Amino acid sequence: MDEVACLDPRCNPTQFFDLDGYEAIVHRNAGGNIRHALRDVLTLDRAFELNEIAIIHHTDCGALTSTDEQIRSHIKARVDKEHWAEVDAIEWGSMVNVEESVKEDVEWFRANPLVREELKRHCQGFVLDSQTGKVQRVDVE
Amino acid sequence: MDEVACLDPRCNPTQFFDLDGYEAIVHRNAGGNIRHALRDVLTLDRAFELNEIAIIHHTDCGALTSTDEQIRSHIKARVDKEHWAEVDAIEWGSMVNVEESVKEDVEWFRANPLVREELKRHCQGFVLDSQTGKVQRVDVE
Ligand SMILES: [Zn+2]
Ligand SMILES: [Zn+2]
């Protein structure tokens, strides 16, 4: 199993999925954004032939607190204008709703032409409740 | 402190840096590649004003076992030709030498125009010996 989760310390799959850390490979980035984990999923799938992917976002995530536009403006304010295109090129991955963002990520993954068909069918999304520590599967389609 | 480390289960900074998981934010991707962590560093720096970045690669890393070209060929073999450009566009981040890759990542980070100057000065690189669990700082320039 490969897990893609937010890097928030509360969102640690080895804890809430009760894994010992060796059963699963855990990619962690801001928000648990699948787009930014695609390289890893593809290289790991090549090396180990993954059988499952879990995408885990969580309530109270920092990615819910600002928009891409706010992040871009903030960074542009201290960066030379000649590099603004680089700021615009980054997919910042802000979220509006955590369940929606999980759904979108699962759908994006399943629609991605670089992913093995069988792996697409074994991609699931979850929302962690940061208060209770409970994880709920998100129904997609 | 923000840490960028390989997602290999042996390369877990909360273990070898003796952190309780709440002192540090840990981004984990294949190899511990800083390029693929830039979005996170920038958004986290915006939210928390980071004071340190540690880049940690490790001996015996999977990223040392194949070249970008091998990964690309492998994926192209099962992907429709119309999507080969997407395969080529991904920076796969294969490594030849783990110390060199840490050095290159630190240098890349320090040269990146989107990163705050002060944060650049507080970026350090480390190599974890996967056998002994010892972490060694890599001197850069
Ligand atoms: Zn989060
Ligand atoms: Zn590794």
From TrEMBL, chains A, B:
Its EC number is 4.2.1.1. InterPro entries: Carbonic_anhydrase (IPR001765), Carbonic_anhydrase_sf (IPR036874). It is an enzyme of class 4 (lyase). Its cofactor is Zn(2+). The keyword Metal-binding applies. It catalyses: hydrogencarbonate + H(+) = CO2 + H2O. GO terms for molecular function: carbonate dehydratase activity; zinc ion binding. The keyword Ion transport does not apply. Binds 1 zinc ion per subunit. Zn(2+) binds at residues 6, 8, 58, 61. SMART domains: Pro_CA (SM00947). Keywords: Lyase, Metal-binding, Zinc. Belongs to the beta-class carbonic anhydrase family. Reversible hydration of carbon dioxide. This is Carbonic anhydrase.
